[in-house]
Amino acid sequence: MIGSFGTVVFEVSNERVRTFEGLQRTNSARYTEHELHQHKSLLEYTGNKPSSLSMSITLDAALGVPPEEDLEKLRKILREGKAVSFILGGVPQGDNLWVLERMTENAEVVNNRGEVVKVKVSLSLKEYVEEGAK
Q: Could you tell me if residue 134 is inside a domain?
């Protein structure tokens, strides 16, 4: 197992290939600007913003991954606003859980029965920080 996002497991085996690409993590600091008369403003560090992650997943029936099953898992996470773990190499990423903030589906191959057999899904995740956590 490569890792997982909630109930979606990233893996490469003889039966299936479910991986991601373009994993990008963004971390940002928060500053307040204090304006001074006839001087440059002063910046005050006030903490960190929640981290964000983005990635793309290709779900391809030819690689043993029926797209609709994983699409429904991801849609459920988004629809219910669930905070879930994102794990890589057995290690939870970050100190907190993650929410699926945005999901874009791009159907790349549709068969002659109108079934999507290959789809590229772009995900945007945001760190879910509970009150009092850092």
A: no
- Its domain, for residue 20, covers 3-128
How many Å apart are CA 22 and CA 30, to the nearest integer? 26
Element containing residue 86 per DSSP (H, E): strand 86-88
Task: State the CATH number of the domain containing residue 8.
Answer: 2.40.30
d(CA 65, CA 80): 23
- Residue 20 CA to residue 58 CA, distance in Å, equals 7
pTM of structure: 0.86
Q: Is 65 exposed, middle or buried (0-12, 13-18, 19+ CB in 10 A)?
A: buried
First to last CA, the chain: 29
Measured distance CA(74)–CA(91) in Å, rounded: 21
What total number of domains does the chain contain? 1
Q: In this structure, what are the phi and psi dihedrals at residue 77, rounded to the nearest 5 degrees?
A: -60, -45
For residue 133, tell me if it sits in a domain: no
Please check whether residue 82 lies inside any domain of the structure: yes
Q: What are the pLDDT digits (tens) for 93-119?
A: 999 999 999 999 999 999 999 999 999
